[in-house]
Every structure is written in structure tokens, then in C-alpha cells.
Amino acid sequence: MSYDDSCPVCRTAEIVCGKWTLLIIRDLAEGRSRFCELERSLKGISPRTLSLRLRALEEEGIVERQTFPEVPPRVEYALTEKGLALVPLIEDMRSYGRRWLGADGECTPASGEAELVVPAPPAAAAA
Amino acid sequence: MSYDDSCPVCRTAEIVCGKWTLLIIRDLAEGRSRFCELERSLKGISPRTLSLRLRALEEEGIVERQTFPEVPPRVEYALTEKGLALVPLIEDMRSYGRRWLGADGECTPASGEAELVVPAPPAAAAA
DNA sequence: TCCCGGTACTTCAGTTCGTGAAGTCTTGCG
DNA sequence: CGCAAGACTTCACGAACTGAAGTACCGGGA
């Protein structure tokens, strides 16, 4: 891919810059998820791309895959520690999008967001 | 591109996920730069891609382009405020790369890094 | 005089990446 | 039987990215 391997920004860019990759991680940051849930949440992704991304992310050790031997087979994906470490990146993107791109949708169930980021807003800021 | 427009993460992903885009911003975060400097620093980028990215980034209001009517014509690119707001993202990527991908190179002239983060080195450093 | 080098690109042909639609495999249900 | 669910593959096509080459400009050296 011709990026410079010794540069940490390049290395991260390589992982992160496939189309949909960051969005998959954003979804998984909310909790473990199944293939078809991701497919539904990432409206517009092709199953081929989702499959490819998930596989690559698994190889990188960013997501973990767990198969259940049920009868429509069930597979769940979750972030590893290495994957969780990307969440601050996502949060930066979220605030950037809100501040500079005028995007204010939730796009994720809003459940995890508070947990993940805000430790405890100092009540003073509001006043 | 089929991303969800109301989602801030998606919107940012759209901007940021072209190959090289983040690296261009990383370079520009070190200070204004010319086309051929970027070309040299981003070893392996094709001039076409660089040109395309720079143009797109300009349209987005992330970089500013300034032309000097000199005799080999000179063009300089710099981050706007909207572009500078992406620097924390780059810094997250840098620490992620260092911590989780074992990449410890500098990849940028090392000059800017300190400038950007440290407000003013105590005069003792020079002596 | 003619060619060279530097800068900022554009054009071209070819490869890789991502897409939508459709197909695969398994078993439970009506 | 035939469809449904779930997790994918396969296929053919278009978009993105690539390397090599070309364009336009002019000053300077052989």
C-alpha cells in the first residue's frame, strides 16, 4: 500500500481507512453485535464488504469473533482491547462531525456514549 | 457514498477516509507546505491523487490554497481552522499506532510535533 | 541556440476496491 | 414442498488509486 511502516499515523491510517471500517468499530463500541445487525445498522454496506472488513479486523486483533452452533448459525463480533483503544478516535470524529459538519444525529443508540466518554461534567460549565 | 448524513461519525468518515487524506492533514499540521514538498513527504502518492485530495479538501474548507505568481509558479497549502480541528484525531492515531502497532518512527520532521503540543519551551533548552 | 531543471499539475491505461443483486447451505415450520 | 432466517460467497460492474508520461512556464548553462 506504499505507506511508511515506521510512522504510527500511517500504520493507523492503513487499518482505519477502509470504507466502513470506522463505522463498524463505532457500532461494536456499543457492544457485541451479529453480522446481520451490523448489516442493518450500517445501511448500505454490502455483505461482501462487511465480511471482508470483519475478517481483516479479526486478523488485526481488533475484533473477536464468536460462533454459536445453533440452527440458523449465529456469529457475534466484539471489540478486543486493541479495538476498544480506537474508541477515542471515534469520539473525536463524533465531536468533529457535530462541531464542523453540522451533523447532529445520534446514529448509535446513545446508550454507550455517556458511559464511554464523559467521566462527569463539572456542573460549573452549564452555569 | 451511501453513508448516513445525519451521523457525525459518518460525515467525518467521509472526509477522512480517502487514502492519504489523513496523512496530508498530518503534514499540513506541521505548517504550510507546497505541492512538491507534500509529494516528497508522502512517499508513494501519485500527483493525481495528491491533486484530487487537495482539491477536495479545499472544497470542504479544510485546506487553504495560496498561489504566488512567481516564475516557477509556487502554490502553498495550509490548514484552515476547520482543518486544524482535525489535529486531535491525528494525534490519537499517532498514539494508537505507537501503543498498539509498534510503530515508533517520527514520520514528520519532528519539528512541529513539539511546537503543536508544547506552548513555549523554557529558555533553558537553548543554553 | 538548444536543452535541462524545477514547479504544479493533467492525461492515460491499468489495477484494486467497493457495489448491488443473486446464490449457497442448513434446518424448522405451515 | 417451499419459504424463512442467518451468515456468508460469487459475479459483473463502476469508482478509486496507481505509475508513467506529458504540458506549460522560464532562467541558466554548454
UniProtKB/TrEMBL annotation, chains A, B:
Domain HTH hxlR-type: 7-105
Keyword Manganese: no
InterPro entries cross-referenced by the UniProt entry: ArsR-like_HTH (IPR011991), HTH_HxlR (IPR002577), WH-like_DNA-bd_sf (IPR036388), WH_DNA-bd_sf (IPR036390)
Keyword Ribosomal protein (UniProt): no
GO molecular function: DNA binding
Keywords, alphabetical: DNA-binding, Transcription, Transcription regulation
SUPFAM superfamilies: Winged helix' DNA-binding domain
Name by which UniProt lists this protein: DNA-binding HxlR family transcriptional regulator
